[in-house]
Design a protein that fits this description.
47% strand
Protein backbone atom coordinates (compact mmCIF):
# COMPACT_ATOMS: atom_id res chain seq x y z
CA UNK A 1 0.00 0.00 0.00
CA UNK A 2 1.35 3.39 -0.88
CA UNK A 3 2.24 5.55 2.06
CA UNK A 4 0.38 8.81 1.76
CA UNK A 5 0.39 11.84 3.93
CA UNK A 6 -0.73 15.32 3.08
CA UNK A 7 -0.69 18.27 5.40
CA UNK A 8 -4.25 19.45 5.98
CA UNK A 9 -4.07 23.16 6.73
CA UNK A 10 -6.78 24.65 8.92
CA UNK A 11 -8.73 27.36 7.19
CA UNK A 12 -8.50 29.45 10.34
CA UNK A 13 -4.80 29.95 9.58
CA UNK A 14 -5.60 31.56 6.24
CA UNK A 15 -5.65 35.07 7.62
CA UNK A 16 -3.62 38.09 6.65
CA UNK A 17 -0.85 39.26 8.95
CA UNK A 18 -0.36 35.90 10.58
CA UNK A 19 3.07 36.96 11.69
CA UNK A 20 5.04 40.19 11.74
CA UNK A 21 7.88 38.66 9.69
CA UNK A 22 8.36 39.98 6.18
CA UNK A 23 5.97 38.38 3.69
CA UNK A 24 7.44 37.29 0.39
CA UNK A 25 4.67 34.97 -0.85
CA UNK A 26 1.61 36.14 -2.72
CA UNK A 27 -1.79 34.78 -3.61
CA UNK A 28 -3.38 35.62 -6.93
CA UNK A 29 -4.77 38.85 -5.54
CA UNK A 30 -2.29 40.11 -2.95
CA UNK A 31 0.95 39.35 -1.13
CA UNK A 32 0.76 36.77 1.66
CA UNK A 33 2.55 33.67 2.88
CA UNK A 34 1.14 30.17 2.93
CA UNK A 35 -0.13 29.21 6.39
CA UNK A 36 2.82 28.90 8.77
CA UNK A 37 3.48 25.38 9.96
CA UNK A 38 3.93 24.41 13.60
CA UNK A 39 5.65 21.75 15.66
CA UNK A 40 8.36 19.65 14.03
CA UNK A 41 7.46 21.06 10.63
CA UNK A 42 7.82 24.72 11.62
CA UNK A 43 11.21 24.98 9.92
CA UNK A 44 9.80 24.26 6.45
CA UNK A 45 8.55 27.81 5.95
CA UNK A 46 11.84 29.37 7.09
CA UNK A 47 13.88 27.08 4.82
CA UNK A 48 11.67 27.87 1.85
CA UNK A 49 11.83 31.63 2.47
CA UNK A 50 15.61 31.45 2.77
CA UNK A 51 15.91 29.54 -0.51
CA UNK A 52 13.68 32.03 -2.36
CA UNK A 53 14.78 35.22 -0.61
CA UNK A 54 15.74 36.87 -3.90
CA UNK A 55 12.31 36.26 -5.43
CA UNK A 56 8.83 37.63 -4.89
CA UNK A 57 6.93 34.38 -4.51
CA UNK A 58 3.36 33.56 -5.48
CA UNK A 59 2.21 30.23 -4.09
CA UNK A 60 0.61 27.74 -6.50
CA UNK A 61 -1.71 25.18 -4.90
CA UNK A 62 -2.76 22.09 -6.93
CA UNK A 63 -6.39 22.43 -8.01
CA UNK A 64 -7.23 18.72 -8.48
CA UNK A 65 -6.41 15.37 -6.95
CA UNK A 66 -5.77 14.27 -3.37
CA UNK A 67 -2.97 16.71 -2.56
CA UNK A 68 -4.14 20.33 -2.55
CA UNK A 69 -2.17 21.92 0.29
CA UNK A 70 0.32 24.75 0.08
CA UNK A 71 2.84 22.22 1.40
CA UNK A 72 2.57 18.52 0.55
CA UNK A 73 4.36 16.19 2.97
CA UNK A 74 5.30 12.76 1.60
CA UNK A 75 8.14 10.30 2.17
CA UNK A 76 8.90 9.70 -1.50
CA UNK A 77 12.52 8.56 -1.00
CA UNK A 78 11.56 5.85 1.55
CA UNK A 79 13.98 7.04 4.25
CA UNK A 80 11.31 7.13 6.95
CA UNK A 81 11.13 10.92 6.98
CA UNK A 82 8.68 12.99 5.01
CA UNK A 83 9.89 15.49 2.45
CA UNK A 84 8.02 18.74 1.74
CA UNK A 85 6.93 19.94 -1.70
CA UNK A 86 5.55 23.37 -2.52
CA UNK A 87 4.83 25.11 -5.83
CA UNK A 88 5.34 28.75 -6.62
CA UNK A 89 6.07 31.32 -9.31
CA UNK A 90 8.13 34.50 -9.26
CA UNK A 91 5.92 37.53 -9.84
CA UNK A 92 8.60 38.84 -12.21
CA UNK A 93 7.69 35.94 -14.53
CA UNK A 94 4.21 34.53 -13.88
CA UNK A 95 4.34 32.33 -17.00
CA UNK A 96 6.35 29.63 -15.22
CA UNK A 97 5.63 27.65 -12.05
CA UNK A 98 8.33 25.92 -10.02
CA UNK A 99 8.33 22.86 -7.77
CA UNK A 100 10.43 23.33 -4.64
CA UNK A 101 11.50 20.34 -2.54
CA UNK A 102 12.75 20.47 1.05
CA UNK A 103 14.23 17.67 3.15
CA UNK A 104 14.88 17.27 6.88
CA UNK A 105 18.54 16.41 7.50
CA UNK A 106 18.05 15.34 11.10
CA UNK A 107 18.41 18.76 12.67
CA UNK A 108 16.83 21.23 10.27
CA UNK A 109 14.92 21.59 7.00
CA UNK A 110 16.93 22.47 3.91
CA UNK A 111 16.18 23.14 0.26
CA UNK A 112 17.27 20.24 -2.00
CA UNK A 113 15.62 20.92 -5.37
CA UNK A 114 14.02 23.76 -7.30
CA UNK A 115 12.51 22.44 -10.52
CA UNK A 116 11.23 24.61 -13.36
CA UNK A 117 7.80 23.39 -14.39
CA UNK A 118 6.10 23.00 -17.75
CA UNK A 119 3.31 25.54 -17.24
CA UNK A 120 2.14 28.52 -15.24
CA UNK A 121 -0.21 26.56 -12.92
CA UNK A 122 -0.20 23.25 -11.06
CA UNK A 123 -3.21 21.07 -11.81
CA UNK A 124 -2.32 17.91 -9.89
CA UNK A 125 0.47 16.09 -8.04
CA UNK A 126 0.60 12.40 -7.19
CA UNK A 127 3.06 9.69 -6.20
CA UNK A 128 3.61 6.13 -7.48
CA UNK A 129 6.33 3.47 -7.40
CA UNK A 130 6.80 2.66 -11.08
CA UNK A 131 9.73 0.23 -10.82
CA UNK A 132 9.12 -1.43 -7.47
CA UNK A 133 12.25 -0.07 -5.77
CA UNK A 134 10.31 1.29 -2.79
CA UNK A 135 10.83 4.92 -3.74
CA UNK A 136 7.94 6.91 -5.15
CA UNK A 137 8.08 8.74 -8.45
CA UNK A 138 6.60 12.25 -8.33
CA UNK A 139 3.97 12.85 -11.00
CA UNK A 140 3.04 16.48 -11.68
CA UNK A 141 0.43 17.75 -14.09
CA UNK A 142 1.07 21.36 -15.17
CA UNK A 143 -1.37 23.66 -16.94
CA UNK A 144 -1.27 27.05 -18.61
CA UNK A 145 -3.21 29.76 -16.76
CA UNK A 146 -5.79 27.26 -15.40
CA UNK A 147 -6.54 25.96 -18.89
CA UNK A 148 -8.71 22.83 -19.11
CA UNK A 149 -6.60 21.73 -22.08
CA UNK A 150 -2.93 21.92 -22.89
CA UNK A 151 -1.81 20.17 -19.71
CA UNK A 152 1.62 18.58 -19.49
CA UNK A 153 2.57 15.66 -17.26
CA UNK A 154 6.10 15.22 -15.95
CA UNK A 155 7.52 12.25 -14.05
CA UNK A 156 10.42 12.73 -11.62
CA UNK A 157 12.34 10.02 -9.77
CA UNK A 158 14.24 10.68 -6.53
CA UNK A 159 17.97 10.05 -6.28
CA UNK A 160 19.72 9.73 -2.93
CA UNK A 161 23.49 10.29 -2.90
CA UNK A 162 25.22 10.46 0.50
CA UNK A 163 21.88 11.24 2.16
CA UNK A 164 21.23 14.10 -0.28
CA UNK A 165 17.99 14.01 -2.26
CA UNK A 166 17.78 15.18 -5.86
CA UNK A 167 15.25 14.72 -8.65
CA UNK A 168 15.66 13.47 -12.21
CA UNK A 169 13.03 14.11 -14.87
CA UNK A 170 12.10 10.92 -16.71
CA UNK A 171 9.20 11.83 -18.98
CA UNK A 172 7.08 14.65 -20.33
CA UNK A 173 3.68 13.93 -21.90
CA UNK A 174 0.70 16.02 -23.07
CA UNK A 175 -2.45 14.98 -21.21
CA UNK A 176 -6.01 15.90 -20.34
CA UNK A 177 -6.32 13.68 -17.24
CA UNK A 178 -4.09 11.13 -15.52
CA UNK A 179 -4.34 8.46 -12.82
CA UNK A 180 -1.54 6.36 -11.30
CA UNK A 181 -2.53 2.74 -10.63
CA UNK A 182 -1.16 -0.80 -10.89
CA UNK A 183 -2.93 -1.42 -14.19
CA UNK A 184 -1.63 -4.93 -14.90
CA UNK A 185 -1.36 -6.25 -11.29
CA UNK A 186 2.41 -6.78 -11.50
CA UNK A 187 3.21 -4.99 -8.23
CA UNK A 188 4.42 -1.85 -10.01
CA UNK A 189 2.46 1.30 -10.60
CA UNK A 190 1.71 2.59 -14.06
CA UNK A 191 0.17 5.90 -15.14
CA UNK A 192 -3.01 5.91 -17.20
CA UNK A 193 -3.31 9.01 -19.39
CA UNK A 194 -6.24 10.41 -21.31
CA UNK A 195 -5.65 12.98 -24.04
CA UNK A 196 -8.31 14.87 -26.00
CA UNK A 197 -7.17 16.46 -29.24
CA UNK A 198 -8.93 18.12 -32.16
CA UNK A 199 -8.08 17.03 -35.68
CA UNK A 200 -9.81 18.42 -38.76
CA UNK A 201 -12.60 19.88 -36.62
CA UNK A 202 -13.33 16.59 -34.82
CA UNK A 203 -12.39 15.57 -31.28
CA UNK A 204 -10.32 12.48 -30.62
CA UNK A 205 -9.79 10.79 -27.23
CA UNK A 206 -6.90 8.40 -26.64
CA UNK A 207 -6.05 6.41 -23.50
CA UNK A 208 -2.44 5.32 -22.87
CA UNK A 209 -0.56 3.45 -20.16
CA UNK A 210 2.96 4.56 -19.23
CA UNK A 211 5.27 2.09 -17.48
CA UNK A 212 8.91 2.10 -16.34
CA UNK A 213 11.62 -0.44 -17.12
CA UNK A 214 14.48 -1.40 -14.80
CA UNK A 215 16.72 1.30 -16.31
CA UNK A 216 14.26 4.11 -15.43
CA UNK A 217 13.07 4.31 -19.00
CA UNK A 218 9.42 5.37 -19.47
CA UNK A 219 7.54 3.66 -22.29
CA UNK A 220 3.94 3.21 -23.47
CA UNK A 221 2.59 -0.27 -22.71
CA UNK A 222 -0.43 0.24 -24.95
CA UNK A 223 -2.94 2.81 -26.15
CA UNK A 224 -6.49 2.72 -27.49
CA UNK A 225 -9.09 4.99 -29.03
CA UNK A 226 -12.03 5.96 -26.82
CA UNK A 227 -15.29 7.77 -27.53
CA UNK A 228 -14.60 11.35 -28.77
CA UNK A 229 -15.16 13.71 -25.83
CA UNK A 230 -15.20 17.42 -25.11
CA UNK A 231 -13.77 16.96 -21.61
CA UNK A 232 -13.23 14.40 -18.85
CA UNK A 233 -15.59 14.83 -15.91
CA UNK A 234 -13.78 12.36 -13.67
CA UNK A 235 -11.25 9.52 -13.79
CA UNK A 236 -11.08 6.93 -11.01
CA UNK A 237 -10.05 3.33 -10.38
CA UNK A 238 -11.99 0.45 -8.87
CA UNK A 239 -10.47 -0.98 -5.72
CA UNK A 240 -7.90 -3.60 -6.69
CA UNK A 241 -8.74 -7.24 -5.94
CA UNK A 242 -5.87 -9.66 -5.32
CA UNK A 243 -4.70 -11.27 -8.54
CA UNK A 244 -6.93 -9.17 -10.79
CA UNK A 245 -6.30 -6.10 -12.89
CA UNK A 246 -7.73 -2.71 -12.01
CA UNK A 247 -10.69 -1.29 -13.92
CA UNK A 248 -10.58 2.45 -14.64
CA UNK A 249 -13.77 4.49 -14.91
CA UNK A 250 -13.64 7.65 -17.05
CA UNK A 251 -16.66 9.95 -17.28
CA UNK A 252 -16.51 11.60 -20.71
CA UNK A 253 -18.55 14.69 -21.59
CA UNK A 254 -19.79 14.34 -25.18
CA UNK A 255 -21.70 17.62 -25.45
CA UNK A 256 -23.23 20.31 -23.24
CA UNK A 257 -25.98 18.01 -22.00
CA UNK A 258 -24.67 14.42 -22.14
CA UNK A 259 -21.90 12.37 -20.59
CA UNK A 260 -21.02 8.66 -20.81
CA UNK A 261 -18.65 6.37 -18.93
CA UNK A 262 -15.74 4.47 -20.42
CA UNK A 263 -14.34 1.43 -18.60
CA UNK A 264 -10.72 0.57 -19.38
CA UNK A 265 -8.80 -2.45 -18.09
CA UNK A 266 -5.69 -4.48 -18.92
CA UNK A 267 -6.25 -7.79 -20.68
CA UNK A 268 -3.39 -9.91 -19.33
CA UNK A 269 -3.92 -12.74 -21.82
CA UNK A 270 -3.86 -10.47 -24.86
CA UNK A 271 -1.36 -8.05 -23.26
CA UNK A 272 -3.37 -4.96 -24.24
CA UNK A 273 -5.93 -2.45 -23.03
CA UNK A 274 -9.65 -3.13 -23.41
CA UNK A 275 -12.55 -0.68 -23.39
CA UNK A 276 -15.76 -2.75 -23.55
CA UNK A 277 -18.20 0.19 -23.57
CA UNK A 278 -16.62 2.30 -26.33
CA UNK A 279 -18.64 0.84 -29.21
CA UNK A 280 -21.92 1.37 -27.33
CA UNK A 281 -20.83 4.87 -26.28
CA UNK A 282 -20.60 5.81 -29.97
CA UNK A 283 -24.26 4.90 -30.47
CA UNK A 284 -27.01 7.50 -30.79
CA UNK A 285 -28.32 6.64 -27.29
CA UNK A 286 -25.56 4.96 -25.25
CA UNK A 287 -26.49 2.79 -22.26
CA UNK A 288 -24.53 5.07 -19.91
CA UNK A 289 -25.89 8.35 -21.30
CA UNK A 290 -27.01 10.89 -18.70
CA UNK A 291 -26.62 14.53 -17.63
CA UNK A 292 -23.12 15.92 -18.00
CA UNK A 293 -23.19 16.84 -14.31
CA UNK A 294 -23.35 13.22 -13.08
CA UNK A 295 -20.19 11.19 -12.48
CA UNK A 296 -19.54 7.66 -11.27
CA UNK A 297 -19.78 6.97 -7.55
CA UNK A 298 -19.32 3.98 -5.28
CA UNK A 299 -22.88 4.00 -3.97
CA UNK A 300 -22.66 0.72 -2.04
CA UNK A 301 -19.13 1.17 -0.66
CA UNK A 302 -17.80 -2.05 -2.19
CA UNK A 303 -14.78 -0.37 -3.77
CA UNK A 304 -16.20 -0.49 -7.31
CA UNK A 305 -17.79 2.63 -8.85
CA UNK A 306 -21.33 2.48 -10.19
CA UNK A 307 -22.43 4.32 -13.34
CA UNK A 308 -25.42 6.70 -13.09
CA UNK A 309 -28.15 6.87 -15.72
CA UNK A 310 -31.43 8.78 -15.53
CA UNK A 311 -34.99 7.59 -16.09
CA UNK A 312 -38.38 9.28 -16.08
CA UNK A 313 -40.13 8.85 -12.70
CA UNK A 314 -43.68 10.18 -12.51
CA UNK A 315 -43.93 9.89 -8.71
CA UNK A 316 -41.30 12.56 -7.99
CA UNK A 317 -41.41 16.28 -8.79
CA UNK A 318 -39.27 19.34 -8.22
CA UNK A 319 -41.32 22.31 -6.96
CA UNK A 320 -40.11 25.79 -7.88
CA UNK A 321 -42.81 28.30 -6.93
CA UNK A 322 -45.99 27.18 -8.64
CA UNK A 323 -44.12 25.20 -11.27
CA UNK A 324 -43.68 21.42 -11.10
CA UNK A 325 -41.01 19.52 -13.01
CA UNK A 326 -40.32 15.82 -12.99
CA UNK A 327 -37.47 14.79 -10.71
CA UNK A 328 -35.70 12.01 -12.64
CA UNK A 329 -34.76 8.74 -11.03
CA UNK A 330 -31.06 7.92 -11.14
CA UNK A 331 -30.44 4.24 -11.83
CA UNK A 332 -26.92 3.06 -10.94
CA UNK A 333 -25.38 0.44 -13.20
CA UNK A 334 -22.55 -1.97 -12.44
CA UNK A 335 -20.33 -3.77 -14.95
CA UNK A 336 -19.92 -7.50 -14.31
CA UNK A 337 -17.18 -8.01 -16.87
CA UNK A 338 -19.58 -8.76 -19.72
CA UNK A 339 -22.55 -6.41 -19.46
CA UNK A 340 -24.10 -3.56 -17.49
CA UNK A 341 -26.55 -4.53 -14.73
CA UNK A 342 -28.90 -2.38 -12.65
CA UNK A 343 -27.54 -2.10 -9.10
CA UNK A 344 -29.79 0.35 -7.27
CA UNK A 345 -31.97 3.44 -7.77
CA UNK A 346 -31.76 6.82 -6.08
CA UNK A 347 -33.11 10.35 -6.19
CA UNK A 348 -30.33 12.89 -6.69
CA UNK A 349 -31.26 16.19 -5.05
CA UNK A 350 -29.85 18.93 -7.26
CA UNK A 351 -28.23 21.73 -5.33
CA UNK A 352 -28.14 19.70 -2.12
CA UNK A 353 -25.32 17.33 -3.16
CA UNK A 354 -27.01 14.25 -1.76
CA UNK A 355 -28.88 11.15 -2.86
CA UNK A 356 -31.47 8.83 -1.35
CA UNK A 357 -31.82 5.23 -2.48
CA UNK A 358 -35.31 3.85 -3.11
CA UNK A 359 -36.36 0.21 -3.07
CA UNK A 360 -38.51 -1.28 -5.84
CA UNK A 361 -41.51 -1.28 -3.49
CA UNK A 362 -41.03 2.37 -2.57
CA UNK A 363 -40.88 3.39 -6.20
CA UNK A 364 -44.50 2.27 -6.44
CA UNK A 365 -45.76 3.36 -3.01
CA UNK A 366 -44.24 6.82 -2.47
CA UNK A 367 -44.79 10.31 -3.86
CA UNK A 368 -41.85 12.70 -3.56
CA UNK A 369 -41.75 16.52 -3.65
CA UNK A 370 -38.37 18.28 -3.66
CA UNK A 371 -38.20 22.04 -3.00
CA UNK A 372 -34.71 23.32 -3.96
CA UNK A 373 -35.29 26.81 -2.58
CA UNK A 374 -36.14 25.47 0.88
CA UNK A 375 -33.65 22.58 0.56
CA UNK A 376 -36.22 20.05 1.74
CA UNK A 377 -37.46 16.80 0.21
CA UNK A 378 -40.80 15.41 1.43
CA UNK A 379 -41.88 11.79 1.06
CA UNK A 380 -45.61 10.91 1.11
CA UNK A 381 -47.44 7.62 0.85
CA UNK A 382 -49.26 7.20 -2.45
CA UNK A 383 -52.90 6.20 -2.26
CA UNK A 384 -54.45 3.51 -4.45
CA UNK A 385 -55.96 6.14 -6.75
CA UNK A 386 -52.53 7.68 -7.34
CA UNK A 387 -53.09 10.75 -5.18
CA UNK A 388 -50.85 11.96 -2.37
CA UNK A 389 -51.47 10.60 1.11
CA UNK A 390 -49.91 11.35 4.51
CA UNK A 391 -46.44 12.85 4.93
CA UNK A 392 -44.08 10.08 6.06
CA UNK A 393 -40.70 11.76 6.44
CA UNK A 394 -38.56 14.65 5.23
CA UNK A 395 -34.90 15.08 4.34
CA UNK A 396 -33.52 18.58 4.66
CA UNK A 397 -30.25 20.46 4.37
CA UNK A 398 -29.15 23.57 6.21
CA UNK A 399 -25.91 25.43 6.72
CA UNK A 400 -23.67 23.89 9.35
CA UNK A 401 -23.37 27.30 10.99
CA UNK A 402 -27.14 27.49 11.52
CA UNK A 403 -27.28 23.89 12.71
CA UNK A 404 -24.60 24.53 15.32
CA UNK A 405 -26.64 27.48 16.58
CA UNK A 406 -29.50 25.07 17.30
CA UNK A 407 -31.74 26.22 14.45
CA UNK A 408 -32.89 22.68 13.71
CA UNK A 409 -36.40 22.44 15.13
CA UNK A 410 -37.48 18.82 15.53
CA UNK A 411 -35.11 17.55 12.90
CA UNK A 412 -32.54 14.84 13.68
CA UNK A 413 -28.93 14.90 12.47
CA UNK A 414 -28.23 12.64 9.49
CA UNK A 415 -24.88 13.65 7.99
CA UNK A 416 -22.51 16.58 7.62
CA UNK A 417 -20.27 17.64 4.77
CA UNK A 418 -18.35 20.80 5.50
CA UNK A 419 -20.69 23.75 5.31
CA UNK A 420 -23.82 21.57 4.89
CA UNK A 421 -25.67 19.58 7.53
CA UNK A 422 -28.32 17.03 6.55
CA UNK A 423 -31.22 16.06 8.80
CA UNK A 424 -34.44 14.05 8.81
CA UNK A 425 -37.83 14.08 10.50
CA UNK A 426 -40.17 11.06 10.68
CA UNK A 427 -43.89 11.61 11.25
CA UNK A 428 -46.23 9.31 13.18
CA UNK A 429 -47.65 8.16 9.86
CA UNK A 430 -44.10 7.39 8.78
CA UNK A 431 -43.41 5.30 11.86
CA UNK A 432 -46.62 3.34 11.20
CA UNK A 433 -45.51 2.93 7.57
CA UNK A 434 -42.25 1.35 8.75
CA UNK A 435 -39.81 4.22 8.29
CA UNK A 436 -36.89 3.97 10.75
CA UNK A 437 -33.84 6.18 11.46
CA UNK A 438 -31.44 3.35 10.61
CA UNK A 439 -33.22 2.76 7.31
CA UNK A 440 -32.81 6.41 6.35
CA UNK A 441 -29.16 6.47 7.36
CA UNK A 442 -28.33 3.34 5.36
CA UNK A 443 -29.79 4.72 2.14
CA UNK A 444 -28.73 8.36 2.37
CA UNK A 445 -25.45 9.45 0.77
CA UNK A 446 -23.60 12.73 0.37
CA UNK A 447 -22.44 12.94 -3.23
CA UNK A 448 -19.75 15.64 -2.89
Amino acid sequence: MKRKCVLLLLSSLLIFGLCSCSARITTVDELMRPPRLSGENSGIQEAFELATQNKTVQVKTPTAGEYRSAYVLYDFDADGTQEAITFYSDTKDETTAYMHVLDFNGTRWESVADVKGKGSEVYQIDFCDMNGDGMQEIVVCWSLFESTGGRVLTVYTPRVDENTVSLRELAQEPITQMLPADINADGRDEIFLMLITTEFGANRTVGRVLAMDNEFGIYAMDSLELVPALSILSLRAAEAQEGTTVALYADCVLNESMAVTEIVYWDAAAHCLRAPLTEDNRALVPQTARSASLSCMDVDADGVPEIPTQQFYSNAVTAVGNERQTLPLTVWLSFDGDALQEKTSALMLTGASCAFQLTAAELQSLTVVYEPAAQICSFYCQLSDGTRGDLLFTLSVTSTAKWEKGENGARVFLAENGRRTYAYEITQAGEAFGVTPSGLQERFAVTR
